Amino acid sequence: MEALRGYNASASNVDSTVFFLSGVPGLEIFHVWISIPFCSMFTIAILGNTLLLYVIKTDATLHKPMFSFLSMLASIDLVLSLTTMPKTLCIFWFRAREISLDACLVQMFFLHTFVIMESTVLLAMAFDRYVAICQPLRYNTILTRSLIVKFGLMTLARGVLLVSPLPFLLRWLPYCGSHIISHCFCEHMALVRLACCSTRFNNIYGIIVALLVVFLDLTFIGLSYAKILRTVFSLASKEEQLKAFGTCISHLCAILVFYTPAILSSIIHRFGHHIAPHIHILLTNSYLLFPPMMNPIIYGVKTKQIRDRVLHLFHRKSF
């Protein structure tokens, strides 16, 4: 806290475009210890998603729509991890809290863009499971390579178009008070709180984007699984039902891992004013770290083709 007071006292003496990231407020003396699980999850996320991309790229039998979507998910997870964790670890290890406004806005842009893209890809994977179970004979004719490429471009365009206004809106806000961002990285609402003018438009736009992404994506995912369940329960035998629904387990786990901490973080941010700030900060970090770490594990364990390929790869390396 003394360090933060020092930064606060010097805020008026620095350029108005320089900010300071606090890390985890109230737990500054534990930053080195907190960095251990953070660094471990970051390492697992980088290695796991890189391995996943390598396996899918080098195995021709995995060049299918489902694994194309999985490649998109792994790529997005890599970017998300690399967007926030290097700076966070620098704060924990070297107390490198300073960040320029432009760098902050770039980090915020990549962070929110790729979070939206991950939600969109999870929606696409729900559609993939719907077609595979409800329209199996038309799977290859519906999910063509050109459709997947178009969807990938649409996913990128959706994220970029929804987030692009935010840096411009934030760039022109006056920041005449404290320049301490109570977070480990730059995100929209953390910057909005530092502005010394009306931020109603920023708040409304942020809420609209969040509702558009979370509400629409979860609604269509729910509709896809409603149709999947209806088809599964219409199958003749219990064995066929379990086999069909078993192909969805990995995707359902990925949905829970992504949306559960995101929704909890949003609820705490909007209504949990009595909750200690470090709880919200840690939850937000877990929301950005946990899915990239868990997705390769989930799909590596539950997807037989990937599991067999990884085991074969390590078996070959050991001889």
Give your account of this protein's structure.
By secondary structure, the chain is mainly alpha-helical. It is built from 13 helices and 3 strands. It has helices spanning 2-10, 31-58, 65-94, 101-134, 139-142, 145-163, 165-171, 188-192, 200-233, 238-246, 249-271, 277-302, 304-317; strands at 18-21, 98-100, 180-181. The chain has a 3-stranded mixed sheet with strand order 2-1-3. Helix 4 packs antiparallel against helix 7 and helix 12 (277-302) crosses helix 13. The chain is globular, with a radius of gyration of 22 Å. The model has no long low-confidence stretch (mean pLDDT 91).
Beta-strand residue fraction: under 5%
Alpha carbon gyration radius = 22 Å
Termini Cα gap? 54 Å
The biggest sheet, with number of strands, parallel, antiparallel or mixed sense and barrel status, is:
3 strands, mixed
Assign an overall shape. Answer: globular
Low-confidence stretches: none
Specify the helix fraction band: over 70%
Number of helices: 13
Order of helices and strands: HEHHEHHHHEHHHHHH
What is the strand tally? Answer: 3
For the largest beta sheet, what order do the strands appear in spatially?
2-1-3
| Helix/strand structural class | mainly alpha
Mean residue pLDDT: 91
What's the quaternary structure here?
A: single chain
